[in-house]
Amino acid sequence: MKTLLVLLLVALGTSGGQNPPVVPFEKHAELTSDTPIDELVFGRLKQLKIQPAGLCSDAVFVRRVYLDAIGTLPTAEEARRFLADRDPHKRSKLVDQLLARDEFADYWAMRWSDSLRVKAEFPINLWPNAVQAYYRWIHTSVKKNVPYDRFVREMLTASGSNFRVPAVNFYRAVQNREPKTIAAAVALAFMGARTEKWSEERRAEMSVFFSQVGYKSTDEWKEEIIFFDALAKPAKNGAETVLPDGTRRRLLPGEDPRAVFADWLTRSENPWFARNITNRVWYWLLGRGIVHEPDDLRPDNRPSNPELLAYLEEELVASKYDLKHIYRLILNSKTYQLSCIPRTNHPDAEANFAYYPLRRLDAEVLIDALCQITDTTEEYSSLIPEPFTFIPREQHSVALADGSITSSFLETFGRPPRDTGLMSERDNRPSAAGQLHLLNSSHIRHKIEQSEKLRQVMRSGRNPAEKVRNLYLTILSRPPTKEELLVVRDYANSGQIKRWEVMVDLAWALVNSAEFLYRH
Amino acid sequence: MIPEIVFPSGTSGTPISRRTAIKSGLLGAAGVLLAGRLGLAAPTGARPPKAKAVIQIWMWGGPAHLDTFDPKPAAGYDYCGPLAKAIPTNVEGIMVGEMLPLLAKQADKYSILRGMTHGVNAHETASYLVQTGRQPGRHVFPCVGAVVSRFKGYAAGYEGLIPPYIVLTQPQGRFSEAGFLGARYKPFATGGDPNQKRFAVEGVVAEGISDQRQKSRRGLLADLNTLKHAMKGNRQLDALDQCEKQAYDLILGDAGKVFDLSEEKDELRDRYGRNTFGQSCLAARRLVEQGVRYVTINYKGWDTHKQHFQTMRRKLPEMDKGMATLLADLADRGLLESTIVWWGGEFGRTPKVQWEPPWNGGRGHYGRVFSTVVAGGGFKGGQVVGASDEKGENVAQRLIYPCDLIASMYELLGIDPNAPLPHPQGLAVRVTPSADEGVSSGGRLKEIM
User: Fold this and answer.
1) Domain B43-199+260-448 carries which CATH code?
2) I need a surface site. Which of A108, B74, B392, B435 has the fewest CB within 10 A?
């Protein structure tokens, strides 16, 4: 490994010399393999003769890691402080700070709610009260960093009222209550497997574990009890069951088959469990799974870097399923900190993580970012189904519990419908309607034109250059380049436009720039 | 709701339309196959479809059938309240409510469906039923507008810059839209008010920003797009660029002019009525004229539990004027033959007036029987289909369920009711429900087609 590393450094060092860093997105630095992740990724790139991108600049890093770790933009002050910090370890310091922030739980509870299908209405029909209970439970689990195996086990083996034992809602957040449907939901969420690609026999075998999930209503409106229905067929006492890896297991009298399944699933040698979640975390942070699509694990869909995936799985198991440990490993790697500007057209560059891929901000993150830079809020309410829901204005969109709350903005920008739990439900592709909205809607215009905060930013600078600098830090988390300052000066001097309008137009232009709209 | 305005060629962002692609042989055999799957191939019977577009007047809240198109003057004051008169129309034997004198003169153009029923009295479920033809279940089906957008929109060669499915002016809400078809089939909600001096269509028209400033801003954005400059040739940013260009075609180009109602003569605008509904009808006609496939006028204010008759006296003349002028104007321009006009809400209202407190003369929800009106696009005019009983409380003749009306419209539009609808989980579902889904049906409206 060591010789490989030396060779790699030499190779990277020479090529680095040919590519001066792209201002303001890259940093002049040697690309060293500081972590096992980097050794595995850069080693593979070297093998394939793919040149990785340069290291991202501090300004890019601070924005990127805020968005990726907590779904929030850094404030101008946070960005300024980070850029001024001279500590050579400031990046990993920042990672630790972010992983401890409250927004971490909001952001990751949103991701979990996507794949666990948290919504009140069709086709999931949890109804508002249960949505709140389920979401709260997910949020708390993320906040407490409950070990991942415990988190999953709690859902799979839960019994009780949907209001009082929130984890039972896992069994209600399905499109119907057929054992096969439940098995498919379990496989997708926790094994990253799509049962429709399995044989009929194997699907039936897995369904047996969920054939004794009972549902009954109570006198309280929309309350439902989920229980182990020992009398339901076909998992009779003493029946022999077959687990998805082919293991046979005879059920004991009175034994809940869900518990048998959960035991099997969360064993460290289970081939799907740790692999699925580490691959997803990688996908969430780096935009592409080591196995791609990230929720389509099967023998004929090979990981692009098997050793990398194996390493992450081992780390997860060794850390006793501490997901934050995995986040930390990835966020601190140089691989994660590569710039988004590729240095090669190599067809395998993307799949091997030779650069950080551009991704448009998620709908909820985008509207929160627009609200943050303008210090404005959004209004959400839901009048059907009852009870009516009104969301406090100060609540972030990322923290909306109910996926069915109506919002034309969120829908235009591809919020997932939470119907299936598939990762592909979220649609971050650009659309003409979305651009029309960002470029010219009264919604966005009012946010900018009527923003007291932007007026303050304007007043805060002692001279025009400083005002522009403050605006850049607020919106793009970095100071403007010299060229950009010249463009703004020319625009201001071009004629009849009033000074405030110049700032409005500037803020508008920055909001509509690729740099604002995309994680980069 | 603002939809994704889809690229003509689908998702890739390349500005090549399907039609061009087929012409230039890019798709070849695959294109032909695709055309067949989308139902582009000639519909059953091989005649070209009669209807090209739909204007849906959505009577949000549920209009009273007794006070509009199914008057029951013989039922007495308990049922009719102060609106006790029925008036004759220009079709022998058809009577309508006394508040609709202008529509009475257009009765030869429309047919009244008096046997509509679904039996549901809750807004959300009834809305879903009326607009999808299906009972609520585990799947959210798309409404008629989304289905039309799917089969007649961009995927079927529609090339307009204006989205193929428009709502004037506010979205109808969650049960009325794309369902599992996904965001790209949602309607574009205009926002704004067509009765204002300038119809400020959200995103298209920005009040207070001149075209000159739009252009200089656009230049500023181009100059300051530093990341884009650093990543020339990036596929994603190129796609974003295309979307931006399409957006600017609407903002600065001629396409957006369809919303400029000042291009119409004052006299005609007056005939439509100088109010939001009247001018929405005019905007709808202009949109259909431009080739837009489906326009919903979301007409609120018909949920009249209280102050029912006061509301009828205020709103019915406005509705009468707007809708009657729309029918006449469409006919004058030769557009009525190819445009279905569909008037109706999620249900009717209780025939018996609720005189008791707290309603003090109101009407409640009523799904057992109600009226819907259809005109144009191949539907005959001057007909009545079905009937309610003497007090308007039950269907007396010819049950018509929402799915019957919807399937009839699809047939006229050349959309195969048995065509598969793409479902995200790959479920085999069809455009209209089949008998084994347990949906009640009284049969398509053969009487008037």
Assistant:
1) 3.40.720.10
2) B435
